[in-house]
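Bug report

Summary: structure tokens for Zinc phosphodiesterase ELAC protein 2 differ between web form and batch submission.
Environment: batch mode, default settings.
Steps: 1) Submit the sequence below via batch. 2) Compare with the web form result.

Sequence submitted:
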Amino acid sequence: MGFSGLLWRRLSRVLAMSQAEARAFSARKTKVAKEPLRHIKNRAKQEAGDRHGPAVVYVQVVAAGSRDAGASVYLFSDHRRYLFNCGEGVQRLMHENKMKLSRLDNIFITRMDWANVGGLSGVLLTLRDVGLPNCVISGPPQLKQFLQAIKIYCGPMDGLSVDVRPYTGPLYSDETMSVTQVPTFTSNGPLPSLSQQCEGGESHSELRQGRTSPDVMHIPRDLRKRFSKGSPPCVISYICKLHDRKGHFLVLKAKEMGLPVGTKEIGPIITELKANKSVTYNGKEVSPSDVLSPDIPGPTFIVVECPSEDFITPLTENVAWKRYLEGKEEASAALVIHMTPEHVLNHTTYRQWMERFGPGTEHLLLNEHTSTVHNLSSYKVQSQLHLIHPDIFPQLPQIRPRDEASEVPGVRAECLLKYQLRPKMEWQRDQVTQNHTCAFVKEAMELPNFRTALEECQSLLKSDDVPAKEGNAQYPEVVFLGTGSAIPMKTRNVSCTLVHVSPSALMLLDCGEGTFGQLHRHYGDRVDDILSQLSAVFVSHIHADHHTGLLRVLLERERALASLGKPFTPVLVVGPTVLMSWLNLYHDNCQEVLHNIR
């Protein structure tokens, strides 16, 4: 039997795997943590002792809302780390920019949409592997079903306890802040019906019957059950109130009051005073106000997503905002983060609602009207490799919004932009990413012997030893969008290969997380044309790094066809039968996607 026969036998075995076999095959090996992570041990000590409230807290933009990266923000405090939304590519951005995933134990999701949860499975696998004991995810009602569904390809989360905090649950509070979930519902009807016909006459139900493995019937009934058709779409906003920071111990005043400053006796006395209790020393009573500076009030910030005009009225009329719109300084919001498209920001009602927060509130705007650069390392490496072979490594285009941003009052998000909440409230731009191609080229040219090696390479390329193209032959053309890394990293990405079969047809071989982002960065404004030519996707196996970019590609392709005015046609997806089980569960419980597949 030749090589092709052996290859086909191997592929046939993978495609025919049962769900149980695929789970075992796909499960990433769990790394056993030898001991608790250092920050967890330190936190336990801190909780057992004096709690002063965090001294440093800031919000930082991970992804600024651009089409290639989505919208995500990171909250840093001395005690904990938090993430708001976790779309595809977030893990890679955090890794590149040294935002430690090992400290991330709270994730907040604003809406059940692949743009907000596409990177969640990869992040949870990494948290499990680094030994984090637990992670809490807050958000819309479908989260539980989503987390159950991803077990099909993630395997068990042994060692990591993942809890879901529903919006109906009690107020969340830890040593950094308290968080209130504010649900917003739109009454404009349920999601599109499953009976809606696909292009070509095949209905969703027919597609499901024809493509679903028998294994899907063994999935628990509550996971296969669709949300009731009357359930309106839901978006969750978050009101985050930092705890007050305890006042400082005033050493000079304490000495004047006769307290034993500098001795072992002072420790328990300070503890009592900071617990707002008076103490008596040498017959003299000392109250907290005598030797402590006033407490520093904790500011409030709000995270809002308003995905469409249907949500504007129920969102802006929600009574949860009342206290922040009354103009009282003690109840004002320091920052409102808007994950909101431009047409909603421009709506009169939404603008008026923003203005009612008052002049003391800053507004951070995250949407596609940004030209910030994400994944700067990719731009740097590509510009340096471009020196070696411009045809193989073309310069990546600068991504700019198609339309000019409107004059909405607020600050446009940029990758790594910070808003510091404590100790001083201010914007900080020192880490904002900038694409300086000339600086990257200069850095490469200054490497020892690089110029000489580059000249030799260029001379070789011009020699007769290198075969030239025959005529204008361009096809097939292969574009490596990933490097086959198991985990998205700074200069590496997971598995994905784009094959241009002809001028009007192309296919993807595997479709790992971040595939659409890579396509968008590589082709820039041409990405819609490229997506419109996509006719097939082949998924080799059910490992997360081989297929978790599929849904984003399918959804963006649907958008591209509509934008170009082209008729919609579904994509042929070839993969293991268990892949269809996963797609069915996501479609049934989270977001309708099956009409994109044939």
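Above is the batch result. After comparison, the two runs are identical; trailing whitespace caused the diff. Residues 189-230 have pLDDT under 50 and may be disordered. The chain is about 35% helix and 20% strand.
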